[in-house]
Write a structure and sequence with these properties.
By secondary structure, the chain is α+β, with helices and mostly antiparallel strands. Helix content is 15%, strand content 32%.
């Protein structure tokens, strides 16, 4: 059973579904989108990478007349299978609370189990000989028990060192030494048409290698993660491959397999996505050094510059990132950025769109001074500012949410309500609030009926106009019940989210 994504961009809503691949299809019980959390500080002060020549005497592996075995054989032992489990609440049938049925059964209604164990299946890649493993966050998210199975059939309990839900990456440690590793490549050098090899444990059948090409790079806009820069490949990837290796023709690790487009079949359709290894290395460095990922922060909402907006704002090209709102007291506000500004350059490098800017800023450390080129009313301005720390880095790792770990709203993801989103949802132009972009399965918010696409306009009878408002009000609520006023398809309803 796969990890499914109910929403994708409008252009693909009617034909495809995105499936996160950690799920335990072979186990018969799904491991659905578990919410993110932060893990204790690592004792390591520096990242750990162990490179290894892929062929003796040459430093690289090459195919021979018989096939690609020389490329794959050195890498296969470094890819592991990961099984995880957690306890989840089992919803009770509403009719059990009906007075008629209570009377019929004499007050002794049949009750099923209040909790059940949910199991997940995924893969991972050994990146250091002393047992550090890189995998997807959704493979181990909220797991109470993790087991790592090596290619030589040895099994070890796994310990979560840290996780980053915003990029869907995690680091797991096993107590072992002398382990095989894979040389880390450079994903910035990938070209469309390059060979690609995927290794993982699809459907729990055992370690499997498949071959294809790099179909595209820089894929984003799927709303799978907050930071998306996917490698697309047609190498067969299926449920269970999540966290596994994507290799180049030299046997170097170039990506961590993460998601597929299934077309409704639940299996490979020739469109798979991997997180580039350059992004994964940066995230792993942060986890090992700080115990979490710390990202730079400007404090502005940004959106695409469409042809219509480019014409309206009198800019010659549909490039850059249009500022849709500026958070009060943020670095952007202090530097004088305004709604309607278009950021066209960052440190003398062109900004090709909002995702490009988000990735570049997220890769910089708080406290870094950046230089922006901004188009305002047709005029170019130079703006310098010192980056802050993104609120998600300060909290529990929940995307765009300041919810505490014990908050009933933990794991809920929200985005700014832009004019484009209002139009897509058919909402009135003047409506204010934040749009829900993610609700973890089996979470208090999900149990209360909160859905992706809902617009939260009030929290505990206080108006919400921005993500900053949302964060502030959720933090004020702490671990108490939260009363939400939600606009859903143009109709407002109250939702009460109770703590567990």
């Amino acid at each position: 059973m796969g990890r499914w994504f109910a929403q994708v961009r409008n252009s693909v809503l009617t034909t495809i579904a995105l499936c996160m691949l950690a799920s335990g299809a072979a186990l018969g019980i799904g491991a659905a989108s578990w919410a993110g959390h932060l893990f204790p500080h690592s004792s390591h002060d520096a990242p750990i990478y162990v490179s290894r020549a892929m062929a003796a005497g040459t430093g690289s592996a090459t195919a021979n007349s018989m096939g690609f075995a020389p490329i794959l054989q050195p890498a296969l032992p470094a890819v592991v299978s990961i099984t995880s489990s957690r306890m989840v609440k089992v919803p009770q049938m509403p009719l059990f609370n009906d007075p008629f049925f209570q009377q019929f059964f004499g007050g002794q209604l049949p009750r099923g189990p209040q909790q059940q164990r949910e199991r997940g299946l995924g893969s991972g890649v050994i990146v250091s000989a002393d047992g550090y493993i890189l995998t997807n966050n959704h493979v181990i998210d909220k797991a109470t028990d993790i087991k790592v199975l090596l290619a030589d059939k040895r099994q070890f309990p796994g310990k979560i060192i840290g996780a980053d839900p915003q990029s869907d990456l995690a680091v797991v440690k096993i107590d072992a030494t002398g382990l095989p590793t894979i040389t880390l490549g450079d994903s910035s050098k990938l070209r469309v048409g390059d060979y690609a090899f995927a290794i993982g444990n699809p459907f729990g059948v055992g370690e499997t290698a498949t071959m294809g090409i790099i179909s595209a790079t820089g894929r984003n806009g799927f709303d799978i993660e907050d930071y998306e820069d996917f490698i697309q490949t047609d190498a067969a990837i299926n449920p269970g491959n999540s966290g596994g290796a994507l290799l180049n023709a030299r046997g170097e690790l170039i990506g961590i397999n993460t998601a597929i487009i299934t077309g409704g079949s639940g299996g490979n359709q020739g469109i798979g996505f991997a997180i580039p290894i350059n992004m994964a290395k940066h995230v792993m460095d942060q986890i090992l050094q700080h115990g979490k990922v710390v990202r730079g922060y400007i404090g502005v909402g940004i959106q695409e510059v469409t042809p219509a907006l480019a014409k309206a704002f009198k800019v010659p090209e549909e490039k850059g990132a249009l500022i849709s709102n500026v958070d009060p007291n943020s670095p952007g506000a202090k530097a004088g950025l305004q709604t309607g500004d278009i950021i066209t350059e960052l440190n003398n490098q062109p900004v090709n769109g909002p995702n490009d800017l988000r990735l570049k800023i997220g890769a910089l450390a708080p406290g870094t001074t950046v230089h922006l080129k901004v188009n305002r009313n047709g005029e170019t301005r130079d703006v310098s500012l010192v980056l802050g720390e993104t609120p998600a880095s300060k909290g529990t790792g929940n995307a765009a949410s300041g919810a505490a770990r014990n908050s009933p709203m933990r794991g809920v993801q929200v985005d700014e309500l832009t004019s484009d989103i209002r139009q897509q949802l058919g909402l009135k132009p003047g409506l204010k609030g934040v749009v829900v972009s993610g609700v973890p399965d089996s979470s208090p918010a999900s149990d209360a009926g909160l859905q992706v696409g809902d617009v939260i306009v009030e929290i505990n009878r206080q108006p919400v106009s921005s993500v900053a408002d949302y964060d502030r009000l959720i933090r004020q609520a702490g671990d108490s019940s939260v009363v939400l006023l939600v606009n859903r398809n143009g109709t407002t309803v109250f939702i009460v989210v109770q703590p567990e």
